[in-house]
């Protein structure tokens, strides 16, 4: 039992908070992604984005994965190319699966991995789809609405005994 508690404690602890490095909005499904400095988040996702409410309201990608994808296709990779909403650095998003994270005023529930779409072949050429596999980011639902802005801290959220979310200590 002690080993399990120890593992749970280790899995809940991160070396440092992450940071929101980039925000992108897509007005329609195949529209170009437009970077913004800040945005409001409602139950449907980022205001101004074509997202939908539910488990896939917001998409996130790990900044540290951009150079990995670039190395696999031997070309530069920008966040716009990958069509995710948020680029997060400094915290392992995979380690936050099924956890809640606070970004600015917003709390998101990290739901699952975001597989690449066929557009990766269009964008990067042959092999683009496979280059993004395993590095395509995460999708999340909105728990608490509010505002997010570049530079916001990204932290894991723990539930209080009454079930209300509070920042991890």
Helical content stands at: 10-25%
Name the CATH architecture: Beta Barrel
**Percent in strands:** 35-45%
CATH names the topology as M1 Pyruvate Kinase, Domain 3
Low-confidence stretches: none
For the record, the CATH class is Mainly Beta
| Domains (count) | 1
Number of strands: 12
The computed structural class is alpha+beta
Shape: globular
What order do the SSEs take from the amino end to the carboxyl end, as H and E? HEEEEEHHEEEHHEEEE
Could you tell me the radius of gyration in angstroms?
16 Å
Largest beta-sheet details: 7 strands, mixed, barrel
Strand order of the largest sheet: 1-6-5-9-8-7-11
Arithmetic mean pLDDT = 89
CATH superfamily: PK beta-barrel domain-like
Distance between termini? 23 Å
The total count of helices amounts to 5
Question: If you had to describe this structure to a student in words, what would you say it looks like?
Answer:
The chain is of the alpha+beta class. It has one domain: M1 Pyruvate Kinase, Domain 3. The protein contains five helices and twelve strands. It has helices spanning 2-12, 66-73, 79-82, 119-124, 128-132; strands at 18-26, 33-36, 38-42, 45-46, 58-62, 86-89, 100-103, 106-113, 138-144, 146-149, 153-159, 165-167. The strands form two sheets. It has a seven-stranded mixed barrel. Strands 4-3-10 form a three-stranded antiparallel sheet, with no helix packed on it. The longest helix has 11 residues, at 2-12. The two termini are 23 Å apart.
């Amino acid at each position: 039992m002690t080993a399990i508690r120890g593992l749970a404690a280790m899995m809940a602890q991160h070396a440092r908070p992450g940071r929101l490095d980039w925000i992108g909005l897509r007005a329609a499904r195949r529209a170009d992604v437009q970077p913004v400095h800040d945005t409001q988040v409602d139950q449907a996702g980022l205001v101004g984005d074509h997202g939908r409410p539910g488990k896939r309201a917001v998409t996130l990608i790990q900044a540290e994965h951009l150079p990995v994808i670039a190395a696999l296709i031997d070309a530069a990779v920008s966040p716009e190319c990958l069509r995710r909403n948020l680029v997060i650095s400094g915290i392992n998003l995979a380690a936050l699966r099924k956890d809640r994270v606070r970004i600015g005023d917003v709390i998101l529930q990290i739901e699952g991995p975001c597989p690449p779409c066929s557009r990766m072949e269009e964008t990067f050429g042959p092999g683009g789809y496979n280059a993004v596999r395993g590095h395509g980011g995460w999708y999340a639902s909105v728990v608490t609405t509010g505002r997010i802005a570049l530079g916001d801290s990204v932290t894991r959220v723990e539930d209080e005994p009454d079930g209300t979310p509070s920042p991890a200590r």
